[in-house]
Each structure stands twice: as structure tokens, then as C-alpha cells.
Design goal:
The chain has 341 residues and is of the alpha/beta class. The chain has two domains: 3-95, Udp-n-acetylmuramoylalanyl-d-glutamate--2,6- Diaminopimelate Ligase, Chain: A, domain 1; 100-314, UDP N-Acetylglucosamine Acyltransferase, domain 1. It contains four helices and 40 strands. A twelve-stranded mixed sheet has the order 8-11-14-17-20-25-28-31-34-37-39-40. A ten-stranded parallel sheet has the order 9-12-15-18-21-26-29-32-35-38, with no helix packed on it. Strands 10-13-16-19-24-27-30-33-36 form a nine-stranded parallel sheet, with no helix packed on it.
Length: 341
């Protein structure tokens, strides 16, 4: 895909300073710009790169005035950073604007799909599946029976969506993710073995949810595992059966949430956090990376550690922990002085 400065200025409502026919086909950082690339300058800390960049077009703030000669064509806008973000979004839309059904692939006769549908080769769409408009399903993906997928959804290559799963509008699900596998439910038997408990629920993912690569979301034993509107999940996260994650909560990589735990709205959870089952995490909670959560957490708490403490208490305790050898030595010296009296 190639765009000229004139086309980009038209999209952004910007002013061209330089060659309106300058063309670009890729994006770059300003310090790594090469001929044929588009970049931007918004932070004054990077001003010096505008004079050395080889990028063909650079988006700049309308107030920018070069202090010496430049070779790049400028597009002046009110907010260079915001404008470049808009271009990224536009580029992403164009890049994923695939349409049609590639072969070999399989779509059950009872499945239904909307306009501008793309299905990559070696993919499978099961019985009674309902798929909305402008959905892109990349190669080697599986959509199980009776699943529902809303509008404007992108499902990247190698994703598995088990039966009865529900995915809302405007969701992005990245490669290797598995939605709707059985929850980890087993009943111990008298002979020491474990009997599997059937997992007959499903997974519901609401609108505007992004899910990273190789994340797993288990179906409920009964009822639903629910990922609410606006949730953002990183790569390699485990969400167990009957978990509910509240609106606009974000969770970083390698976090695990055990069964039946409820997480509130607008929470921020760091990487490698472990959350035990049957807990309630309130709204607006902050959990620092590598924390272990074994208790309910009230609204607005910021916690850290394993087991997790209040963030301020953890930091105070950590100061003492770092000084523990010195503290022990001082205690031993005091003991000697007392014993010698």
C-alpha cells in the first residue's frame, strides 16, 4: 500500500510543506526513517532527528519551524502525535481489509455470516454459528457449534473458539488464544482418583475487548465466564471457569485468575499475578506485578507482595527486609552485651 503526502494530508486535514507527491509505503521512528517511510515528530527531545531522517514524509505540529535545511516533506497538523495515531488506525484498517472465503476451509450449511466476511484457509466454522458484518477470521482457526460473533471482529490465525461461546462487537483476539475450553473441575473419589465434572456453561466476551496471544479463557461449569466491555488482556493469561472481569479492567501477561473470582471495573493488574478462587476484587484496584492474592480486595486498594499487602505497608516492610542481615547482626550484638552483664 502506498500513500502520497497529498492523500495523507487529506485524511488528517494537514498542510503540506514540501513535495505533495512524496510517497510512502511503511511507517518508521523518526531516528530510523528511510526513504519511502512515514514518521512523526511531537516531542522536542527528538527535534535534532528532523534534520537527519531519511523518511519521505514527517508529520509535525503546526507550530514547528525548521532551523536549517531538511529533506523530508512536512505535514503540519494541530497535534502530530494524535494525527500519527489516526494514521496507524487507518493503516491497520486497510491492512486487515480482507474479504472472501479462502479454500480449503469449511463452513457448515447452518452457519450464517454477514457482509465483508473473510475466512482464511484451513479454518472451520461449525453448525449454527452466527457471525456479524466485517468479521475477519484468519487461517487455521476453529469456531465451534452454536457460537455467536458480533460485528467488526478480528480473530487471528490459530485461534480456537469452542462451542456456545459469545463474542461481542469490535473485539480483537490474537493467535493461539483458546476460548471456551473446559474449566478445571474434578471431584476427588474415595479411591484417590478424580472424576471429571462436566463443564456445561460457556464464555461471554462483551464489546471492545482485546485478547492477546496464547491466552486461555475457560467455560463455566454452569452459567458463564464473563469478560465485560472494554477489558484488555495481555498474552499468556489464564482465566478459569466462572470468573467475571469487570468493564475496562486491564491485565498484564502471565497472570492467572482461579475459578469463580469476580474482578471489578477499571482495575489494573500487573504481570505474573496469581489470584485465588472464589474471591471478590473491588473496582479501581491496582495489583503490582508478581503479587499473590489470597483475600478479598476492597475498592480502590493498591496492593503488592505474596501474600499481598497494602502497597505502602509492603514498601515499608521491604526496607526492613533489605536490611535484615544488618538487623540480625545488631540483635546478636545486643544479646551478647546483655549476656555479658
Amino acid at each position: 500500500m502506498q500513500f502520497t503526502a497529498e492523500q495523507i494530508a487529506g485524511i488528517l486535514g494537514g498542510e503540506i510543506v514540501g513535495n505533495p507527491n512524496a510517497a510512502v509505503s511503511r511507517l518508521s521512528k523518526i531516528e530510523e526513517g528511510t526513504e519511502g517511510s512515514l514518521t512523526f515528530l511531537s516531542n522536542p527531545k527528538y527535534n535534532n532527528y528532523i534534520y537527519t531522517t531519511q523518511a519521505s514524509i514527517t508529520i509535525v505540529n503546526s507550530t514547528f519551524v525548521p532551523e536549517s535545511d531538511i529533506t523530508t516533506t512536512l505535514i503540519k497538523v494541530e497535534d502530530a502525535y494524535g494525527a500519527f495515531t489516526k494514521i496507524l488506525e487507518y493503516y491497520d484498517q486497510v491492512k486487515h481489509n480482507k474479504c472472501g472465503i479462502e479454500q480449503p476451509s469449511f463452513i457448515a450449511d447452518s452457519a450464517k455470516y454477514g457482509d465483508h466476511f473473510y475466512l482464511g484457509c484451513f479454518s472451520y466454522v461449525g453448525n449454527n454459528v452466527k457471525i456479524g458484518h466485517n468479521v475477519k477470521i484468519y487461517p487455521n482457526s476453529y469456531i465451534g457449534d452454536n457460537s455467536v460473533i458480533g460485528d467488526n471482529v478480528i480473530i487471528f490465525a490459530g485461534t480456537r473458539v469452542y462451542s456456545e461461546s459469545v463474542i461481542g462487537n469490535n473485539c480483537n483476539i490474537h493467535s493461539g488464544t483458546i476460548i471456551g475450553a473446559d474449566g478445571f473441575g474434578y471431584a476427588p473419589q474415595q479411591d484417590g482418583t478424580y472424576k471429571k465434572i462436566p463443564q456445561i456453561g460457556n464464555v461471554i466476551i462483551e464489546d471492545h475487548v482485546d485478547i492477546g496471544s496464547c491466552t486461555t479463557i475457560d467455560r463455566a461449569t454452569m452459567g458463564s465466564t464473563v469478560i465485560r466491555k472494554g477489558v484488555k488482556l495481555d498474552n499468556q493469561i489464564q482465566i478459569a471457569h466462572n470468573v467475571e472481569i469487570g468493564e475496562n479492567t486491564v491485565i498484564a501477561a502471565q497472570t492467572g485468575v482461579a475459578g469463580s473470582t469476580k474482578i471489578g471495573k477499571n482495575c489494573m493488574i500487573g504481570g505474573q499475578v496469581g489470584i485465588a478462587g472464589h474471591l471478590t476484587i473491588g473496582n479501581n484496584v491496582r495489583i503490582q506485578a508478581q503479587s499473590g492474592i489470597g483475600r478479598n480486595v476492597a475498592d480502590g486498594e493498591t496492593i503488592q507482595g505474596s501474600p499481598a499487602l497494602g502497597y505502602a505497608d509492603y514498601n515499608k516492610s521491604y526496607v526492613h527486609f533489605r536490611n535484615l542481615p544488618k538487623i540480625v547482626a545488631e540483635l546478636e550484638e545486643l544479646k551478647k552485651q546483655i549476656n555479658n552483664k
